[in-house]
Amino acid sequence: MSLSLTLSPFYAAPQKTHLANFPLTRYEQRFTIYSPSKFRSLTTVVRSVHKDSGHLPVTPAKPRWENVLSTAASLYPLYVTVGGVVACLKPSTFAWFVQRGPASYSLSLGLIMLAMGLTLELKDLIGLFMQRPLSILFGCAAQYTIMPTFGAIVSKSLGLSPSLSVGLILLGCCPGGTASNVVTLIAQGDVPLSITMTVCTTLGAVLLTPMLTKILAGTYVAVDALKLSISTLQVVVAPILLGSYLQSKFPAAVKAVIPFAPLFAVLASSLLACSVFSENVVRLKSSMVGASLPPGSSPVLFIQSIVSGDLGIIVLSVLLLHFAGFFVGYLSAAICGFTERERRAISIEVGMQNSSLGVVLATSHFTSPMVALPPAMSAVIMNIMGSSLGFVWRYMDPSKLDDSPKLTGK
Q1: pLDDT under 50 in the chain at which residues?
Q2: Cα separation, 262 vs 248, whole angstroms
Q3: Burial (CB count within 10 angstroms: exposed 0-12, middle 13-18, buried 19+), residue 130
Q4: With contact defined as beta carbons under 8 Å apart, do 109 and 37 qualify?
Q5: Which residues cross the membrane (predicted)?
Q6: 3-state SS of 53-96?
């Protein structure tokens, strides 16, 4: 057996290797995954055994400063949560960024996607797709059917306002986010499948996100699918392809930049979500009648007043949408006979969205600022839910739960 490729769309640096020319007793496939939004360097090693040789590749340890940057980038949920609190207490903190929107939102997402593209080798992605097309196609189909459908169902069931309904449906129609790659690693899921699904759904978003949004949200407000498609192409697909081109043409320069990409992308994503939240804080506060309650009111009455307002409805709708993605994604993969590791990867990939894209499209193409609130709230809720699920699965051995034989071609 020989190692045919080293795949990682979030690969830390392009390094040439001759491992493919030698039969190995054990080989290592390294996957460096950048998280939440985009980029915390984590490495998982997959080993295979062959009888012909005893060579084992040696991987040099990363410098300490790179580990510090990676650790800082892993705190994405904390950054978003703290930023949300700041936005609630002092919305003017983010005024400098909000006043320049939506251009500032689009530029920041474009830079995040460019950083993702710098770590992507398309030939490796195509190679993996050819090896296991069934699981990848199933995962991508699940992504663009389960979440959009439940976005429409939840918004209808909760009787959301037209603006919030469009925002929730738009969130459901977005591609998978790269935070899912790290959560899949924590959950002992199929990391290569998760990475490939993220890239494929992101590239497919230029057509599928606008089309599905128009079909499902067009009954609430007018949706210009062409403009949505052009924006997705500009802020997502074009930067990814540009980054991949730069990675192939200027590997030395890219190698010097890559260690700083995770933290930059995480902070940019946090800034996006918190800025949108700060725009709507005044309206959300006015919907919370708890401010007018008598001083002696019970905590239960205060909580009910919050839940009954817009903020409570938004949180509940986003919770239900992501829960449906995790649960139905896993269930559908189990019914179709995928292995436990693949089920976990598909469940996490379906349940975790690229909320930053939802924020940018909402602020650029819809007049109501409330449309951007579900994607902005999702940045916090989704990561908390996904991380919790990942840590639960971390302590459940997938081999003991795998009661289905692996289908050929997956």
Answers
A1: 1-57, 289-291, 405, 408-409
A2: 20
A3: exposed
A4: no
A5: 76-98, 105-122, 134-154, 166-187, 193-213, 225-246, 252-277, 313-333, 376-396
A6: CCCCCCCCCCCHHHHHHHHHHCCHHHHHHHHHHHHHHCHHHHHH
Please count the structural domains in the chain: 1
Contact between 169 and 213 under an 8 Å Cβ cutoff? The reply is: yes
Domain containing 87 — which CATH number? 1.20.1530.20
CB under 8 Å to 404, separation ≥6 — which residues?
334, 337, 338, 339, 340
In a domain? residue 54: no
- Cα–Cα distance, 291 to 365 (Å, whole number): 33
Residues 160-217: pLDDT tens digits?
Answer: 989 899 999 999 999 987 778 778 877 888 888 888 888 889 888 889 999 999 999 8
Give residue 90's domain range.
19-48+64-287+297-401
In contact, 394 and 188? CB cutoff 8 Å: yes
Q: How far is CA 189 from the centre of its chain?
A: 16
- Asked, for residue 177, whether it belongs to a domain, the answer is yes
CB-CB neighbours of 139 under 10 Å: 28
> Do 297 and 133 touch, CB atoms closer than 8 A?
no
Question: Which residue type occupies 106?
Answer: S
